[in-house]
Amino acid sequence: MFAIVRDFMVVLVACAFAGTAMAQDLAPETRLGEEGFESPAASLKRMDWLVGQWVGEGIQGAPAMESWLPPTGGTMVGTFVQQTDEGGIMFTEHLYLMEEEGSLVLRLKHFNADLTGWEEKDDMLTFRLVAMEPCAAYFRALTLRCADAEKPGEGLVAAVRMQSGGELVFRFTKTHAQSGAYGCDTKSNVEEGLLCLLSLEQETHRQINLYARMAQQRFGDDPELAGALAEANEQFFTYRNAACNLLAEHLLGDTQLGNDPARFSPDQIQSIERVQYCKIDANRQRALSISRNWLAHSQGTPTAVSEQ
Fold first, then answer.
1. Segment holding 108, helix H or strand E
2. Which of 23, 34, 175, 267 has the most CB atoms within 10 Å of its CB?
3. Cβ–Cβ under 8 Å, residues 69 and 288
4. Category of 129 on φ-ψ map: left (φ > 0), alpha (ψ -120 to 50) or beta
């Protein structure tokens, strides 16, 4: 992959964030906790600022993105995508931020670009909570906090302690498409607003496909089930398109919109937005369904990997 020592790479990708900067003279961002420490009481209600899409620079300056869905059933599901300089996928991660025994734990698994896993089938990296502060969660050797505690959700700082010593600190910004329910109503003109919704629809579409491939890979030893999962995903898009196209026909009929959004009437703009909302909402629900039903962690005790 890269000519980097293994302990550097394992912890670097385990942190699931991007935009590298070495912390040297500053006070450390990460905490390890005392030997035998007990995790404090905490719930996902205090992590609502983390929900959304975060972007920044990743390994060797290549783009990276992180997505977190709202909590469901005591779990926040996240995905991380590290791109190559050429825009391809270097690797991805599937993350679970979970309520467990009255506290929080962060677990994750890595996947290569071809969906082969780094860890064994039922193994994963595990990070226990050391401390919780306003707009900040300190896991053992890994920190997630707001860039500015007075402005939750605008910036994300993540840090990870390396086995070889020292610390890596990462900084993300939140994409406009994820501020608020959709965020696209903050755009300066009609064209930018519609492009924003289109981008969000494409982003949620890609997330479905990623989750579906991960599910198929997880059950690769059962070809019949893996094939059925692939077929179910195709059937979802058939249903989604039929439902949202029907809405478009109802709202717009045979209207010829042309190529200049500036000429669209307010009613036409609202109708187009409703059709995009139809697709985005359906995509989000589908991604959540795949994650909950087919990517849930094993019910057995996972093999914890040292954070250092």
1. strand 103-112
2. 175
3. yes
4. beta
Three-state SS at 143: strand
- Whether residue 187 has pLDDT greater than 60: no
Give the span between the Cα atoms of 156 and 171, in whole angstroms: 6
DSSP tag of 36: T
Residue 242 CB burial class (10 angstroms; 0-12, 13-18, ≥19): exposed
**Both tokens of residue 60?**
């060797």
- HSE toward the beta carbon, residue 182, CA cutoff 13 A: 21
Amino acid, res. 70: P
Q: Which residues pair with 117 in a beta bridge?
A: 111
Query: Could you give the dihedral angle defined by the CA atoms of residues 288, 290, 293 and 296, in that order, rounded to the nearest 10 degrees?
Result: -80
Q: Are 118 and 104 in contact (CB under 8 A)?
A: no
7-61 per-position pLDDT tens digit: 322 333 343 333 344 444 468 888 888 888 999 999 998 998 888 888 887 777 7
Compute how many other C-beta atoms are within 10 angstroms of the C-beta atom of residue 301. Answer: 7
Q: Give this prediction's pTM.
A: 0.56
